[in-house]
Structures are given as C-alpha cells and as structure tokens.
Specification:
Jelly Rolls; Arc Repressor Mutant, subunit A; alpha+beta; 219 residues; 4-stranded antiparallel beta sheet; 23% strand; 2 domains; 42% helix
Length: 219
Amino acid sequence: MNIADYFPMWNKLTSAQQNILKDTAALRSVKKGTVIHNGSVDCIGLLLIQSGLLRAYILSEDGREVTIYRLLDRDICLFSASCIMPGIQFEVIIEAQKDTVLWIIPAHIYKRLLEQSAPLANYTNEIMASRFSDVMWLIEQVMWKSLDKRLAAFLLEEASLEEVNQLKLTHEIIGNHLGTAREVITRMLHYFQSEGIVKLTRGIVEITDSAKLTALANS
C-alpha cells in the first residue's frame, strides 16, 4: 500500500503535489497503548493507517472516557491535524488500540496542499463530514439507546474486529468505550451472563450466544 491508495482523487493532483505527499509522509510504527494525538493543542498532522487499530475518544472533566470512532486499515484521521481547519477545536485523543503502522503527513504540508488543490480540499471535507456524522451518531446512541443495546453492539463489534468470541476486556475498558462507570458495566454483564449470552471470567468476556446478542443489539 502506498500514499496514492488513500486518495481516490490522486490523479487530479499535479505531479509536484503528488511528490510532496510521497516525499513528506513519514512511516511510523506505534505500540498498543501509545497516545498519538492529545487534544487540540497537539497537531501532528494527517494520519494514514496502513495496518492496526486506532481509537479516537473524548475525555470529560471528571476523567470519564467515551469512544467516538475507531480507525482501521486504509482509514484517514483528520482530527490529529485539526489546526489546519479554522474554527475546529475538537479535544479528541487518538490512541493505538493495537500495534499500528501509519503514515504521518505534517500538518503544515497538508495545509499548503489544501490551499493549492480543490479536489484535495473537497475530499478532505468529505472525510471531515463523515467523522462528524460518527460523532452525531454517538450522541444519538448515548441519548436515546439503552445501555444494554449499546453494550451488545459493542461486544459484537469487538468480536468482529478481533475475530474471536473470547474478548480480553476488563469491565473498566468497556466502560471507557461506552462512557459509563465500571460498576454499571459489571451489573449489565452479569445480567447478560444470567441470560446465557456471555460467560465471564477474570479479564475475559466470552460471547456464548451470538444470535441472542445480535437480537438485543438490533431490538
């Protein structure tokens, strides 16, 4: 995979613009748990994920986390370069959820190219609109969807990402993703266990009835 694969409008860039992107993009490997971007004061640039998994989350004043989206292979992260977009101050933290390989295009380089290329600017706006849609979807979920359905959907998503039914997740980590307290997650998981949906052991949530979990998530 090369830089051109991330930009469907690559052929609409000039040769000089293409070369700038290729020459300035730095390939970086980060370990699981590494915080790559920390709020609006941190503007490292555009992140292009080659392999791995990144988690974008926000942090409340009392220290509670909630995941707003996750980034997989071939995804692009714009909030790590929010300083190039006037008026956008989004306190998003980007953390590697798995060992990850990514390209970083410096913010000042990408800003200069945005000013030169309308196709690149349009594509960037599309990505930003998609991310804000993710945020709005999250707000709707938190406001209108009950926790049991959100938890069911999260467990299914995690099982799909990891391609296993035994999930190595603490109740605190799940709470961080869903923006709720560990104790609340513990009570809900014990209810799931009593219904035969999951089996709980220390640090592991095993999905034992995917069909029932899917029905709950979609109900």
